[in-house]
Amino acid sequence: PAVKPDKPNLPSLEPALPKALTKSAAWKAIRRRPCFVVPENFFLRRLCMLLLRNAWFDRVINVFIIVSSLLMMFQNPLNNPSGFVEKYLFRMSVAFTFIFASEMLIKMIAFGLLFGRPGRPAYLQNSWNMLDSFIVIISLYDAIVKLTGEDSSAIPFLKMFRMARMLRPLRIISRNENLKVVVKTIGASLPQLRILLVFSMMFFCIFALLGVSMFKGSFYTCQALTADGALEGMSLESGASAKAMCILPDSPERHGLRFLSQRSEDGCSADSQEWQRGTPDTPVCEVHCDGEHSMDHPFCTNTLPWGYNIMRCTDCRDAFCPGGRDAGCRSYCQDVSGHDNFCRDRTSENFTQCVDECEAECVCPDACRGLVLDAALCVEQGGRWINKHQHFDTLEQGMISLFEISTTEGWVDLMLASVDSIGPYRQPKRDENEWLGASMFISFILLGSFFVLNLCVGVIIDNYSDQKVVVGDLMVTETQAKWIAYQKALYVKKQFFLQTNLHVIAPTRAHLIQIVTSPTFERCIMACIIVNTICLGMVAHPSPSDGYGKFLDGMGNAFTVVFNIEAVLKLLALQRTYFWENWNTFDFFCVFVSDAFAVFDMFWDNEQSNATLATVISAVRIFRVARLFRLVRFLKGLNQLFLAFVLSIPKLVNVAAIMLLLMFLFAILGINLFAKVAYPLTGSYGHTANFRTFPQAMSLLVRAMTGEGWNEVMHGLANSKFDYQSYMNIACEDDLDMDQLARHSNVSHIHQADLYFMSGPEWEPNGCGSPLAYVYFILYTVVISFVILNLVIAVIFEGFEESNKTELQDLIKSCVHRWRKYDPQFKMLISVDRVFDFIDECVEDLCRGYGKTKNPNWSVETRWDPSYTGLNTRSVLAAYSMKYVKINAITVTSKQEVRFVVAVRAVLRRLICQGGLNGSVTTKLGRFHHLRELEALEMGMETQSLPLRVERELLELQALEQTQAHLIAVALNHRLGMHGQIDAERSFLTDVAAAKLQTLALQRLVNRRNNKKKKSKWWGNSGASAAQVHTIDED
Description:
Helix 3 (43-53) packs across helix 5 (84-111) and helix 8 (177-215) packs across helix 13 (395-406). The chain contains 36 helices and 13 strands. It is mainly α. It is elongated, with a radius of gyration of 43 Å.
């Protein structure tokens, strides 16, 4: 048989070609050749198909994908480039690359490259194959470049493409059907998510524009650098408008730059020049060495930190933009409608000085940033005018800030900053802008976070439900689907009673079974569990008194004895069937752990023990509180939640696998992007949250997934070179070259065999931050927090919905409880005449419990046939109503007995015909219609005329039924010395039909005899002979 390739999810390219080409004989001849070269029956293609047909081929490739992905955890930009680890990882990467390239080539030869045919799509007609080929080609390029010794890292475009190798773990998804279902759900949500993204962008843009118009330049504060290198808030001197400063003389380390310094009380030094702004709106310039005109200046290219430097704007222009004069800038500064903050006081006698400084700042704005008002006062008093990470100076920054606070991270701090804001270049003042600032952010949180982003939850859940409907649609009627679900709920149970055949065991043990399985016994044990938990919760440190602690220990030991007695009694009563119930296994484990540590505690010396061991022992001793989980069995609400959790586990595993895979990719990408970034002096990014190693990266991503301070880490990684070197006085490099560093560093600091290059305390990476941190963390938050975690919510909702449908479990439990009345010895068999009493009683009580009996259309099917005349008194079967028997559809053994499962199935069938427990009550005609649908389903199974999916579902039901019947037979016949044989059963409907046919035939015979007697009497009266009358009677 031909190997089955991946299903195509991309259209063929052949319809896009000219029809004249596709209809030509030459095209048809080439068309049949995979990759246009290999003939259809060429031995190489047959060999490739043989390899792909072998199941071990995919298994080996999967192992290679997993191993190559795990090796990526050890790749780190901080590794020694010439060390053993990096060389080994490179060799392994090259080997895996050529293995995956060979796999791609084999599939291309087998399936063709672009043009497939019905039943055998081409290789590139599958999107997963396109992803595989893209990763393989990038990996091949990287391997060839490294093997030839060429340096491709200098080309940023190619460097970004090399990071595509990190997508290799995504190939695992294409080989796992469960993961494909999760990805398919996400893919189905993309169209609506795109619409939601556009709507959210519009919504964020509106609020961002509003924020820019109200708060641009208003979130700056005056801060001072402390002795330990941290930044803290600084208060300005009240009543000052401008302070005199000292112009420092030229020096070699400043390379001709005339910086301003704070004037002391004694005035400026002899070689310094005093200078003061003439008006508060006269600018003084902040030096930026990261500007286009200043980055090549000798002062800005040295290895020392730049520091926070202030200059007169005219001096700054002359240093970085020499000869720069601009008439447009001067008129802009002089005009009334010019600069919003500079030189607004046109009546001042120092207006000309202000215009000169304003013009200089306008000519060279990237290197000289003007400060006025409180901002200028801040730097004149020795402070630093620093902006908040979240601000509205530009539309882009405003939208990023709004995205941060939409995750409820830092929104209160930003709101308080807006409440205190006064305006550009002004120091914030408490509650100056209270109503306007608070109203904007509260409105955004209510609309943006609680409404717009929660629409994402609705989109994911809605699409997940749609996918579930599509997958679960079996093309059957509602009644048939309900019948399949009811049968599955019945057949999935393996045992209904822990002990059967009580008539063959000792009377003492049978009595003991009645005790340990009684509700009263369970209530006493539950009361002990609750009191024991209360005692455990009363532990206090330090203990109020010696007697208090001894009392609690005594209570704990007493309850331990009680639980041991319970376990012993149940083991004596149930014996091996004790462990058939999971709750009993859980109880036994709790008792065993309690006993083991009680014995250990007797021989353990507290004073000479290890502190860690003592903590472990105390923690394990508290494990006794785990018995509280037994409350789940008796409290319906807890049982429903626990069942929702259990039902969600399989699907949560698939979602968790996708989430871990994506977090793995983001961790690898984060290490390659941000491992070299230096730790800032402030913020969350530091020794406890970084991308230096893979474990630390995963820990940080888990933290970011929960929304805990992820934005602070993002801003710490996005700090620019100016932030490091000017605000924090930390030297950093834009692109830290580890190869060059290894060649020029002290050899004693290099650990050739270590995983982390220069991991000693003498050296730490000093790379600068990158704006890519914004893209990285926003993308991570959208994918993980807004999509994957919402998919988890959708799965939990589905589990909760399924747990709400507990009427089937309650129905079966009710039948089990009522069966005890008819079968006290638990033989799992009762006579056929009693089984109908059981069925009628169960149906009537269940319907009464759901309020169906109050409906005027409610009626119970009559068991007896009203047309039965009782002619054949030797058989009661003829008295049954055929419709009643058809609805129940029971089967009987050779001894005219009915099994428990058959009886419960008849109850379910009756309820289905009645419209279900939660459905509306149906009329007699409706019940007849439901019965016809069930019969059509059964007939279709016999004739194999059902759709494939329905037939597969029913075959699964038959397998469950056979497994359940075998297990019950083994449990029943074990005590009787038999081997689990299942007696042959026949339909009770057949017996009833035969009895009715017999009765009908007898009725007709009686009628004929009566008619003949009448005729004989007539012949006798008419003068016929006795012989003639006798002949008529014999006939």
